[in-house]
UniProtKB/TrEMBL annotation:
Keywords from the named record: Oxidoreductase
Name of the protein: HemG protein
The UniProt record lists the keyword Oxidoreductase: yes
Gene Ontology BP term (one): heme biosynthetic process
Length: 178
């Protein structure tokens, strides 16, 4: 199969996720084109057997590069098998309210772009204080201390469950050939 894996990221976790999936798909014998959505001008989803888009949430929104690409290519994306990997810190927890917020953000996104992903994976992201400016570092420090009292607010912490993501990705890959 020929796959497109495209991502938008702010602090790097969605790119890391995209790289991980690209390597896994290569390992399974697929051909993969991986690129940043910011560089996806002229890329046509119709040329692929399956498309994975990954992006992360900041202040309840995905990166505009994702929205721009999804809106521009909605028709083609709706015709090929797609997997949307949504990276956030809300997905690291069990708060029903936060999970409802993920549903809302996704519903607003699909309505705004016209693209309905074939499969959606809500994936826990990472806390990376070294990547934040001083204001974000202060805000995120409060947030991480509230949600994860065991975390050291001065250190990076990754919440991504790679095994769960692999299981979901393998099932999606299998559905392409099925
Ligand atoms: C300024 C800022 C705002 C964020 N807003 C949200 C949010 O609204 N909801 C959420 O679940 N996670 C939020 N996060 C957490 C990010 O989604 C998480 O850190 C993710 O791993 C970032 O992915 P990236 O490295 O690909 O940009 C926020 C993070 C930052 C730094």
């Amino acid at each position: 199969m020929k796959l497109l894996v495209a991502y938008a990221t702010t602090e790097g976790q969605a790119r890391k996720t995209a790289r991980h999936l690209t390597e896994r798909a290569h390992g399974a014998g697929h051909t993969v084109e991986m690129l940043a959505l910011a560089d996806a001008d002229g890329v046509n989803p119709s040329g692929f057997d399956g498309v994975v888009l990954a992006a992360s949430i900041h202040a309840s929104q995905y990166q505009s590069a994702l929205g721009d690409f999804a809106a521009r290519e909605a028709e083609a994306l709706n015709r090929v098998p797609t997997l949307f990997v949504s990276v956030s810190l809300a997905a690291a927890g069990h708060s029903a309210e936060e999970w409802r917020s993920l549903d809302r953000i996704l519903a607003d996104f699909t309505k705004a772009t016209g693209w309905t992903p074939g499969q959606v994976e809500q994936v826990a992201g990472a806390y990376r204080p070294g990547q934040y400016d001083i204001i974000r570092r202060f805000i995120m420090r409060q947030i991480i201390s509230d949600r994860d009292p065991d975390a050291d607010p001065g250190q990076d912490k990754e919440y991504t469950d790679w095994d769960a993501l692999d299981t979901a990705f393998d099932a999606w890959l299998a559905s392409l050939s099925g």
